[in-house]
Amino acid sequence: MAIIIKPIVTEKMTAAGEKLNRYGFVVARNANKVEIKKAVEEMYNVQVTDVNTLIRAPKVKQRWTKSGLLKGAQQAYKKAIVTLKEGETIDFYSNI
Predict the structure, then answer these.
(1) Per-residue pLDDT averaged across 7-27, rounded?
(2) How much is the pTM?
(3) Angle formed at CA 73 by CA 71 and CA 79, multiple of 5 degrees
(4) Nearest to 85, CA basis, from 45, 28, 26
(5) What values do phi and psi take at 39, rounded to 5?
(6) 49 near 84, Cβ under 8 Å?
(7) What contacts 84, CB < 8 A, 6 or more positions away?
(8) Domains in the chain, ordered, with CATH?
(9) Quick check: helix, strand or coil at residue 44?
(10) pLDDT tens per residue, range 70-91
(11) Residue closest to 31 by CA, chosen among 74, 1, 8
C-alpha cells in the first residue's frame, strides 16, 4: 500500500515550504501520522518534526443543462502537512 500518493504543489504550499518549512502531501485515507512520518523520511531523506492531517470533504457541483440538473462531486481525500527539521528542504522538481 502506498502511503504517499502525491505531493501538493500549489502556490500556497510552495510559500509555506519556503517560509515555514512545511510541505503538503495527498496520503492514503487509512494512513496515520506515524506511518506518514516514516514514509516521508524514507522517501525524501529528511527529518520530520510534526505531522498534521485533515480530510478534505467532497466538493459538490451541479449545473443546469437542456436535459435537466446534473449533480456530481469531487472525490474526498486525506491531506498531510509535514513540518521538517530546521535547515532541511524537499525539492519536488529535482527529477523532472
Answers:
(1) 94
(2) 0.86
(3) 170
(4) 45
(5) -65, -45
(6) yes
(7) 21, 22, 23, 46, 47, 48, 49, 90
(8) 4-84 (3.30.70.330)
(9) helix
(10) 999 999 999 999 999 999 999 8
(11) 1
